[in-house]
């Protein structure tokens, strides 16, 4: 397996693992690393068969799995939590509704996020992050906003699964990607797909974040004027 590793801003990284084995199309599965002070935070942890690649990718940025202090999951699907088994010393968190998806024995290592409001949560011991329930993909799918890097991690709430990287770039400010995302949402609105109203409700909860990076669970990371990008997506969904 190959991987790409890119620094978003100093102390924040995306690792995208090229997967030609798990699904019927080639895709990328993304993990994110936040390095701040004595904390190393891993957001999503990949699948079990990624573990040797994860070790190699972390080493590229001077990290071993034993150095990871916290693992935060966007949701409970196996390709996002299995790799957390590498992080023996980390405190691990997932939304309570998705905790049952984590299989034993690793399930015992995961605690639930602390509730701070009707749809908002916190990870004990981790500052400068805001966590919000996004309503779709899984019962406990959350988005995680890092105030310091201005990165918004949305997991598979919205992602670019199976899509090529534009010009081979993992991080892009491509207007074509942004416009295509809005067109996709508009198309879903016209089709009145089941669960679309819940998706729109989740999307509305992201509009207040002043993000610079839109970090999904699979594929390209979109950068630049993300608050406006999300607003445009929301308006596209309301235009039916």
Compose a concise summary of this entry.
This protein is an alpha/beta fold and about 240 residues long.
Describe it for me?
By secondary structure, this protein is an alpha/beta fold. The chain has a single domain, classed as Metallo-beta-lactamase, Chain A, CATH 3.60.15.10. The protein is 22% helix and 29% strand. The longest helix is centred in the C-terminal third of the chain and has 17 residues. It is globular.
Features:
240 residues, alpha/beta, Metallo-beta-lactamase, Chain A, 8-stranded mixed sheet, 7-stranded mixed sheet, 5 helices, 15 strands, 22% helix, 29% strand, globular
Shape: globular
Strand order of the largest sheet: 8-9-10-11-12-14-15-13
- The CATH topology is Metallo-beta-lactamase, Chain A
Share of helix, binned: 10-25%
What count of domains describes the coordinates?
1
Mean pLDDT, all residues: 95
CATH superfamily: Ribonuclease Z/Hydroxyacylglutathione hydrolase-like
Q: How many alpha or pi helices?
A: 5
Biggest beta-sheet profile: 8 strands, mixed
Q: Which second-level CATH architecture applies?
A: 4-Layer Sandwich
Which strand-content bin applies to the residues?
A: 25-35%
Count of strand segments? 15
- What is the H/E string? EEEEHEHEEEEEEEEHHEEH
- Ends distance: 42 Å
Radius of gyration: 17 Å
Low-confidence stretches: none
CATH class category: Alpha Beta
Helix-and-strand structural type:
alpha/beta
Spell out the blueprint of helices and strands.
Blueprint: E1 3-9, E2 12-19, E3 27-36, E4 39-43, H1 51-60, E5 70-72, H2 78-81, E6 91-94, E7 110-112, E8 114-115, E9 120-122, E10 129-133, E11 142-146, E12 151-155, E13 171-172, H3 175-191, H4 196-204, E14 213-216, E15 221-223, H5 226-237
Parallel strand pairs: 4-5, 5-6, 6-7, 12-14, 13-15
Antiparallel strand pairs: 1-2, 2-3, 3-4, 8-9, 9-10, 10-11, 11-12, 14-15
